[in-house]
């Protein structure tokens, strides 16, 4: 028998294995008791989550039992409740420390060379081994041969970017191809032991690809091939990666702390202004000791990697990431419009045109994540933010899973927010990207009606209804919207709308007449501006007063932990590669479709 720890609405759930049995925990990463409906159907929360993003942090698992470490104290807002027999869960992925072979760090640059009388591009793959850092040079066709050989030996590989003949030496294309190949290698290295597949890193093919003709990194540092314009590594890398690009390290000293906008058990979120340029950002700080103690290291790493890779107008952008001896810092887009949940709770429901618009922008964001091989797994109104003019941005990627390209399979972990869990997660039969389309159907239903379908505070009844209850609608939901939501909420993920591709969703009559390129280019005005009445950019009217009234000194003291920032930036092997500066050569321009 397993123990189910339940917080109210808005919390996440993850299955965690232990040596003494299996347990499920539903707990809030930022210590809020969630939300629920009163007798009139209105949403209530007694202590609100961080109204920004990634602001609530990637900390999502609160296992009650551990085999090798002491159980962390559960949030005081959670309460125990027996929910019957729960199915077991596996760890999200193997610990990075379990693997001792050559480690992919990143693709650090490229060069155009002559090979057998023909011009070709070589990419500089950085590899870490016990004796140091090395560079191995590979052409595209060598990546293709490596992919094909791994596949022929039965290893499961992510899709390799296709070969392109026209424009192959265009600077923009080469830089994009460099990023695509880096992402491909990164996904290849994200082995999930729960998948039942073999780890490709243990193959001789992997070692051969990573080590043949390796050369010391020092030989290329400072050269034209490895320069400021290099693609930043998306996997584990040197803590001094920013110095490799000849860019100054970012620290807390670079920001002016303005106002608290979120607080939780793992840290605080602060509205900050960068001293150089005066731009506003949201800075999320996480306490390293809490992250480690609550077994959130891999979730934190995942969030950092996904934020570093995702470049899309409807996904929160990571600008900087840095660390001190005690803290991790994410510097992200400041979203002054607050959460979609914040406004939905006040309006009770949205006009159909509003809901359709937001759903369309969410569709493009999910399409981009899925093109990167990322399944989001935490789409809900609390994680949908508004920018200063009313466009949505998805946030909080601590539950994301990399290396998932199939709609119905790829991982077996049980995680997500109870109200938005699809049947395949509840039944532990494996899941893929289709879980995100299910969640979008739930969110759209909630935007149109004020409540998610099948909603009840009783978790067992909720899960039973998700598995078996018919989907019903209020009379004011039109037939096309009903058909669209019904397609997104098909219980069989293989038959679910979007399972094959986002085009299934985009081509549904619900979006008839939608100009997807104009939407991507932000040319279609949002239906609602949550900041229209704001007096200035620093006004925080869309955030809860319980946070914004906090003394800023408490944030600074907590963030510094009694240590001067300039003296505290010692490297951490646990969070190696966390540092990040936005590369100048990555822009938000592009086209809809493949991200």
TrEMBL record:
Broad enzyme group: transferase
All residue ranges annotated as the Protein kinase domain in the record: 255-511
Chain positions covered by the region annotation Disordered: 222-246
CDD domains: PX_domain, STKc_AGC
Record key words, sorted: ATP-binding, Kinase, Nucleotide-binding, Phosphoprotein, Serine/threonine-protein kinase, Transferase
Biased composition regions of type Polar residues, renumbered to the chain: 232-246
Residue span, AGC-kinase C-terminal domain: 512-590
Catalytic activity as recorded in UniProt: L-seryl-[protein] + ATP = O-phospho-L-seryl-[protein] + ADP + H(+); L-threonyl-[protein] + ATP = O-phospho-L-threonyl-[protein] + ADP + H(+)
InterPro entries linked to this entry: AGC-kinase_C, Kinase-like_dom_sf, Prot_kinase_dom, Protein_kinase_ATP_BS, PX_dom, PX_dom_sf, Ser/Thr_kinase_AS, STKc_AGC
Domain (PX) ranges: 101-217
EC number, as in UniProt: 2.7.11.1
PANTHER family with a match to the protein in the record: RIBOSOMAL PROTEIN S6 KINASE
Name of the protein described by the UniProt record: non-specific serine/threonine protein kinase
Protein's organism: Phytophthora cactorum
């Amino acid at each position: 028998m397993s123990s189910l720890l339940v917080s109210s609405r808005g919390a996440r759930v993850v299955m965690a294995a232990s040596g003494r049995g299996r347990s499920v925990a539903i707990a809030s990463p930022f210590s809020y008791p969630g939300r629920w409906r009163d007798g009139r159907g209105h949403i209530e929360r007694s202590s609100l989550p961080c109204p920004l993003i990634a602001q609530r942090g990637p900390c999502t698992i609160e296992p009650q039992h551990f085999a090798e470490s002491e159980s962390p104290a559960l949030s005081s807002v959670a309460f125990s409740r027996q929910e019957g027999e729960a199915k077991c869960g596996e760890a999200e992925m193997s610990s990075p420390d379990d693997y001792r072979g050559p480690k992919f760090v990143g693709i650090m640059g490229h060069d155009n060379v002559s090979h057998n009388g023909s011009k070709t591009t070589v990419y500089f793959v950085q590899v870490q081994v016990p004796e140091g850092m090395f560079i191995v040079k590979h052409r595209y066709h060598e990546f293709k041969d490596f992919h094909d050989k791994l596949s022929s030996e039965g290893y499961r590989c992510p899709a390799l970017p296709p070969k392109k003949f026209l424009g192959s030496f265009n600077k923009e294309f080469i830089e994009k191809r460099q990023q695509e190949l880096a992402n491909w290698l990164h996904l290849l290295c994200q082995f999930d032991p729960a998948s039942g597949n073999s780890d490709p890193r243990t193959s001789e093919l992997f070692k051969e690809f990573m080590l043949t003709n390796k050369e010391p990194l020092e030989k290329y540092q400072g050269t034209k091939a490895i320069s400021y314009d290099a693609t930043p590594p998306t996997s584990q890398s040197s803590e001094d990666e920013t110095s490799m690009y000849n860019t100054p390290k970012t620290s807390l000293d670079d920001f002016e702390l303005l106002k608290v906008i979120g607080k939780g058990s793992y840290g605080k979120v602060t509205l900050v202004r960068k001293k150089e340029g005066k731009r506003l950002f949201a800075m999320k700080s996480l306490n390293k000791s809490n992250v480690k103690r609550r077994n959130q290291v891999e979730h934190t790493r995942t969030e950092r990697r996904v934020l570093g890779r995702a470049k899309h107008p409807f996904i929160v952008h990571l600008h900087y990431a840095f660390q001190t001896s005690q803290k991790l810092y994410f510097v992200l887009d400041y979203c002054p419009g607050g959460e979609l949940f914040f406004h939905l709770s006040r309006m009770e429901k949205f006009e159909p045109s509003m809901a359709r618009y937001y759903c369309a922008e969410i569709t493009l964001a999910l399409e981009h994540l899925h093109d990167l091989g990322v399944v989001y797994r935490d789409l809900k109104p609390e994680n949908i933010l508004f920018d200063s003019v009313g466009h949505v941005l998805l946030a909080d990627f601590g539950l994301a899973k990399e290396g998932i390209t199939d709609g119905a399979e790829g991982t077996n972990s049980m995680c997500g927010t109870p109200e938005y869990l699809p049947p395949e997660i509840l039944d532990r039969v494996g899941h893929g990207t289709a879980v995100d389309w299910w969640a979008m159907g739930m969110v759209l239903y909630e935007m149109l009606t004020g409540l998610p379908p099948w909603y009840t505070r009783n978790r067992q009844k909720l899960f039973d209804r998700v598995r078996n209850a018919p989907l019903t609608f209020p009379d004011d939901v039109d037939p096309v919207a009903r058909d669209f939501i019904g397609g997104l909420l098909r219980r069989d993920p293989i038959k679910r709308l979007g399972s094959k591709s986002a085009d299934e969703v985009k081509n549904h009559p619900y979006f008839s007449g939608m100009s997807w390129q104009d939407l991507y280019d932000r040319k279609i005005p949002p239906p609602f501006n949550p900041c229209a009445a704001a007096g200035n950019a620093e006004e925080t009217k869309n955030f809860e007063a319980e946070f914004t009234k906090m003394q800023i000194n408490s944030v600074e003291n907590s963030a510094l932990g009694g240590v001067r920032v300039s003296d505290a930036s010692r490297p951490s092997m646990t969070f190696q590669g966390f540092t990040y500066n936005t590369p100048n050569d990555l822009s938000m321009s592009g086209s809809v479709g493949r991200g």
